[in-house]
Amino acid sequence: MAAPLYTTASGQILIATVGLPARGKTHLSHALERYLRWLGVKADAMSLGDYRRKVLGGPKSPDTDALRRRVLEEFDDTVIDFFNGGGQVVIYDANNGTQARRYAIREKFGKLGVHVMFLESICTDKSIVEANVRSVKVSSPDYVNWDPEQAVADFYKRIQGHERFYEPIENPSFPYIKVINVGQQVIVNNIQGYLQSRVVFFLMNIHNRQRTIYLARAGEALIDHLYKADADLSSLGWQYSQRLCDFVIQHRQQAAQASIRRAKDGILTPGGHEPGTGPGMSGRPLEVWTSARKRSAHTTLAFADKGFRVIERSQLSEINPGVVDGLTPDEIRAKFPDEWDKKIKDPYAHRYPRAESYHDLSIRLEPIIFELERATSDVLIIGQSSVLRCLIAYLQGRKPQDIPGIVVKEGELYEMAPKAYGISTTVVEFWDQVKERQLRRGSSTTVSATCSAAPVLEAMAEPQVTDVVA
């Protein structure tokens, strides 16, 4: 197994969330867990609420309140078990709204040698609380089969009950981070160590505004699988780039229309309650990011011609294969047998001579990760499969060792929308590379008709939808 990108030299860390309900604690917890896992840190976001529902089988009631202390102790034991099993960081997702509770956490885990820091989420913007309640809380297991408005009213009563006892963090000796309005302002106190500093920097770059991230491979090049050539698109690659542009525009327009229909039925798109933040052409704008490599950059030209903002980012360049550039697997095995064996044993961390590993590529992409977290518009990233594998692994909260095995096919559009509990991923096929190449081998008349034909969404495969929860 590859070594993690970063280790906790100061020991194990527990990050305990603090805040009233519907303040975005779970959103922050899962975003932080996703980032730490992508770095290679063995981290887990553990929710007291989820554990309570698992043990008690439903919402709180007078009959179950007597079990609260036992459930809390058992939950703490699961956190300790994670640390004993080699875990490095736990995000302890709970209200922890009193000074007494926070002192108890610090004493209990401090005795075990775990460094405790607190993450307090404060919301002074009532619209953020309203959006959190309506888009997340009323759909929780506590409100199954409830009328939505009754669920909202009940949850606000729950918030009022917590407000009577809530005590904000004021102890200057506590290491803590205060995040106000999910990223509008961040207050830091007594933070120590490199990894804790990375946590702070990450939290300074995130928000909870609704947006969609699209990922697609670049078109076919004239000289494929040769990094040094930096070849331009083939004629089929140019056709692919136009099809991708037409499909994305039509797909977003349909998403906007679907959002309008849901709104008429009283179903609000999260974040869409604010003017100019809905999906599609009439809502959030779309930026297209790509590398300076010809194959990727020229795939975006159709978008530039349509007036979309296209940004070239050097970090998005494909992985450098080094001395094995242009070689087939059989040729690599024959010329570099020792290196081949090392690659098979550790495909994530191994690098061929004068090459990059996926580990190196992940480090190179870290600025892109922060740009994605800061982005308030929709973003389409067009690049090579190696880059897209790393970004998918980050967004889905997967382990670094999973990256080399992620399959990203030409002709697939990944549509990824951040949610409170993870990432919703939809994969839509818009281009059949086998069929298109077969048509190329047919008559020139057939090819001409294929090139000029407008893409029709209804004729394409139904999208495969996968909800990924970190």
From TrEMBL:
Where do the 6-phosphofructo-2-kinase domain residues begin and end? 9-208
Tell me the GO BP annotations in alphabetical order: fructose 2,6-bisphosphate metabolic process; fructose metabolic process
Give GO MF terms, alphabetically: 6-phosphofructo-2-kinase activity; ATP binding; fructose-2,6-bisphosphate 2-phosphatase activity
InterPro entries referenced in this protein's UniProt entry, alphabetically: 6Pfruct_kin (IPR003094), 6Phosfructo_kin (IPR013079), His_Pase_superF_clade-1 (IPR013078), His_PPase_superfam (IPR029033), P-loop_NTPase (IPR027417)
> Among its keywords, does the record have Signal?
no
Question: What are its GO cellular component terms?
Answer: cytosol
> What domain of life does the UniProt record list for this protein's source?
Eukaryota
Question: SMART domains, alphabetically?
Answer: PGAM
* Entry keyword Phosphoprotein: no
Give the keywords, sorted.
Answer: ATP-binding, Kinase, Nucleotide-binding, Transferase
Q: Which PANTHER family match?
A: 6-PHOSPHOFRUCTO-2-KINASE/FRUCTOSE-2,6-BISPHOSPHATASE (PTHR10606), 6-PHOSPHOFRUCTO-2-KINASE_FRUCTOSE-2,6-BISPHOSPHATASE YLR345W-RELATED (PTHR10606:SF39)
- Put simply, this protein is called Bifunctional 6-phosphofructo-2-kinase/fructose-2,6-bisphosphate 2-phosphatase
